[in-house]
Amino acid sequence: MWHVSCVVSPCSGLRLMGCSKWRAAFNFGHLRVQSKLSVFFTMILLFTYLFYCLNGYCDSLPRPVYDQQSHFENKILLNDGHEASSPQQQQLGAHNASQVVREQLSDLSNSDAPSNNISIANNFGSKKFPQAIIIGVKKGGTRALLEFLRIHPDVRAVGSEPHFFDRFYEKGLDWYRNLMPRTLEGQITMEKTPSYFITKEAPRRVFSMSRHTKLIVVVRDPVTRAVSDYTQTLSKSPGLPSFQSLAFRNATTGLIDTSWSAVRIGIYAKHLENWLRFFPLSRLLFVSGERLVTDPAGEMGRVQDFLGLKRVVTDKHFYFNQTKGFPCLKKPEGSSRPRCLGKSKGRPHPQISSEVLHRLRDFYRPFNLKFYQMTGHNFGWD
């Protein structure tokens, strides 16, 4: 800081007035410098703000929650472009709007996606419980069915198996719903977990979620299915005992070991009885795993009808891959190659003696006949 002093001169009585004028001029100049600096920095901030806004950065700023809520309330209160005609309707609309906002905010806060300051208005659709579930069976063709269905623009499905109704039920329905993809009006939410079909508690749990859930079961010749199941396990555990030693309790008497899951899953009639205690037969669709290979478009037509969808997935979407012995999806628009299922699909089965297969087929025959009777459909496995 500068220090200014005035020398007192005996020659003039104006010495005090001169010092005062000098000090006033100095203070005024100092204030002018501060004012110019303030204006300068203000202009820098203003131009910076304008630059960012012109480049669209201002739009990414989060909107206040109350502003988002007002936005949703306005959308709900407008019914096809018209406001509610009575105070009662307006009050009901406001209540529904608040409920929707709470659900949307809950979905956003519970989402696994990282926060990126995108407003709720940019998240199209809502998360719902699945209206349809592929509940079984393992190695029957469930993955193929799901991939074929996902071509349909009105189907939104979880890619992985949630295993909610058999393994993670204690996590609660809110956790389950949050796993689902967002859907728009008219779209169907789906998931597939093949082990549901053989899980004793699953029918009651699905029914508790919604008694209107549509259930799809992909079934396949239980003997072929058991061999395919064993093949998959063998690929993961090369030291696995032989198929014959696992399938029979006593190879001499031919007594089948029903405790082995590969055998137990194929007793379809027993598992179906469990589901029919909670759901009418009309809520279930049984898809032939064999026909899903030989006539994928035909089976997909039945599935789309069952789900109430327009038949969009047709013959034009499929071609038969001779190497895999399985249908593949033709090259989607914008893709460089066709889409086939993974390496685990269509893998060659190990050689199993015809006598073992014959005994296993005799074991399944009465259960198959009962299953035909229960479903009203002969799958031709005998």
Automatic annotation (TrEMBL):
One of its GO terms (cellular component) is Golgi membrane. SUPFAM superfamilies: P-loop containing nucleoside triphosphate hydrolases. Its EC number is 2.8.2.-. Signal peptide: none annotated. Residues 130-365 form the Sulfotransferase domain. 3'-phosphoadenylyl sulfate binds at K139, G140, G141, T142, R143, R220, S228, K345, G346, R347, P348, H349. The active site is at K139 (for sulfotransferase activity). One of its GO terms (molecular function) is [heparan sulfate]-glucosamine 3-sulfotransferase activity. It holds the Pfam family Sulfotransfer_1. It is an enzyme of class 2 (transferase). Disulfide bonds join C328-C340. It is a single-pass type II membrane protein. Keywords: Disulfide bond, Glycoprotein, Golgi apparatus, Membrane, Signal-anchor, Transferase, Transmembrane, Transmembrane helix. The keyword Transmembrane helix applies. The chain crosses the membrane at residues 37-57. It is found in: Endomembrane system; Golgi apparatus membrane. Belongs to the sulfotransferase 1 family. This is Sulfotransferase.
